[in-house]
């Protein structure tokens, strides 16, 4: 009886105390949390994610795709490795984009994929080539999930069919209900260069092979087009991508008031002529061959970020002998409407990262 009486008096006090705690907790939850600054240091992923294509998918994650490569870890050649991140800094390997290699070409690797979200599906435009291939091509695959698997839809064209040498490094761009594919790589032939061609409405074929437009000279590859304010910006790589510590890859830029050019560098020179383009980033004492950048990604503060590959000169090769092209991240500053990376070299120190 005494226990019951004591409990009778204690229960209201207990409920009152709990009620006060709940109100306090609710108030704390309603107050905005301070923004946490994420810091990072390059590289943001290793051992390899060459020729990266980075997108933000509908599930809120960033997905990265890279050239088919053997990482030297005993797992063989990865058919377009796929990695995932929430902040562009911490990446996790989640698998390969393809379960089997496309069959429309007999030999070669799947290189330089460009992945985009279109018609509520994920389209991957990819190169199919060997080193020194005299007739490489570009194909397209589709997935309903950004992690794959991607189902091949076949060939868009071979070099011989579109009359452009070294047709690799595709880049997709859509505007005004039109879809374009930019492509091309190194060549000294008369018809050399980076070109753009209009795709069919479904993105699975080219409207007219003869209606191609030359964008840049054949000393460029790895085209990426970015629209900002009144200009379209061409980002392209020059030099050698894959010679370990001796790689000379670097990125140069031009801009145009029109998607299909002409693209001029900061000195007013047309990048359709060889030797032109304004330097964005080149190698440093620590890193060789920075290049083949992804699309630019903006964070919640409006800062722009560039992901690309580079090679640490102190650890330039994977065990199999291939260049160890790690994934790098650097902020782009816009100065007088031109993109600038600090010191024009890969960042090497701890710095403030993107905010999402």
Q: Secondary structure elements and their pairing?
A:
Elements: H1 2-30, E1 39-40, E2 53-56, E3 62-65, E4 69-70, E5 77-78, E6 81-85, E7 92-96, E8 109-118, E9 121-129, E10 137-143, E11 151-158, H2 159-162, E12 171-175, E13 178-185, E14 193-199, E15 213-216, E16 221-228, E17 231-238, E18 250-256, E19 278-281, E20 287-291, E21 297-298, E22 304-312, E23 325-335, E24 338-340, E25 351-352
Antiparallel strand pairs: 1-25, 2-3, 3-6, 4-5, 6-7, 8-9, 9-10, 10-11, 12-13, 13-14, 14-15, 16-17, 17-18, 18-19, 20-22, 21-22, 22-23, 23-24
Overall description:
- The structure is a single chain.
- With 356 residues, the protein is mainly β.
- It has one domain: Tachylectin-2, Chain A (5 Propeller).
- It is 9% helix and 40% strand.
- It contains two helices and 25 strands.
- The strands form seven sheets. Strands 20, 21, 22, 23 and 24 form a five-stranded antiparallel beta sheet that branches. A four-stranded antiparallel beta sheet has the order 2-3-6-7, with no helix packed on it. A four-stranded antiparallel beta sheet has the order 8-9-10-11.
- The longest helix has 29 residues.
- The chain is globular and about 50 Å long.
Features:
four-stranded antiparallel β-sheet, disordered N terminus, Tachylectin-2, Chain A, single chain, five-stranded antiparallel β-sheet, globular, mainly beta, 9% helix, 356 residues
Question: Quick gist of this model?
Answer:
The protein is mainly beta and 356 residues long. Helix content is 9%, strand content 40%.
């Amino acid at each position: 009886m005494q226990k019951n009486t004591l409990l009778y008096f204690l229960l209201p006090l207990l409920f009152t105390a709990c009620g006060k705690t709940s109100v306090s907790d609710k108030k704390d939850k309603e107050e905005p949390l301070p923004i946490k600054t994420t810091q990072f240091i390059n590289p943001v992923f290793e051992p390899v994610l060459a020729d990266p294509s980075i997108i933000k998918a509908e599930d809120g994650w960033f997905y990265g795709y890279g050239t088919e490569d053997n990482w030297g870890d005993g797992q063989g050649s990865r058919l377009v490795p796929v990695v995932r991140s929430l902040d562009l800094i911490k990446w996790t390997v989640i698998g390969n984009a393809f379960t089997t290699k496309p069959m429309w070409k007999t030999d070669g690797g799947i290189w330089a994929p460009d992945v985009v979200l279109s018609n509520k599906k994920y389209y991957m435009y990819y190169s199919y080539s060997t080193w020194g291939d005299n007739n490489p091509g570009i194909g397209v695959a589709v997935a309903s999930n950004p992690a794959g698997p991607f189902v091949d839809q076949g060939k868009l064209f071979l070099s011989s069919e579109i009359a452009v040498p070294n047709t690799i490094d595709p880049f997709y761009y859509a505007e005004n209900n039109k879809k374009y594919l930019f492509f091309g790589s190194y060549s000294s032939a008369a018809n050399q260069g980076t070109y753009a061609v209009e795709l069919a409405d479904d993105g699975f074929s080219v409207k007219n092979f003869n209606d191609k437009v030359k964008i840049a000279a054949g000393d460029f590859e790895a085209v990426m087009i970015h629209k900002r304010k009144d200009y379209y910006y061409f980002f392209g790589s020059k030099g050698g991508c894959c010679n370990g510590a001796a790689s000379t890859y670097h990125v140069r830029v031009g801009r145009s008031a029109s998607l299909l050019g002409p693209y001029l560098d900061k000195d007013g020179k047309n990048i359709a002529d060889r030797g032109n383009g304004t330097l964005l980033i080149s190698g440093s004492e620590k890193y060789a061959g920075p290049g083949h950048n992804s699309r630019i990604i903006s964070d919640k503060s409006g800062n722009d970020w560039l992901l690309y590959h580079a090679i640490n000169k102190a650890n330039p090769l994977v065990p199999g002998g291939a260049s160890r092209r790690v994934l790098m991240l650097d902020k782009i500053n816009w100065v007088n409407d031109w993109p600038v990376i600090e010191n024009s070299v890969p960042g090497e120190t701890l710095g403030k990262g993107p905010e999402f």
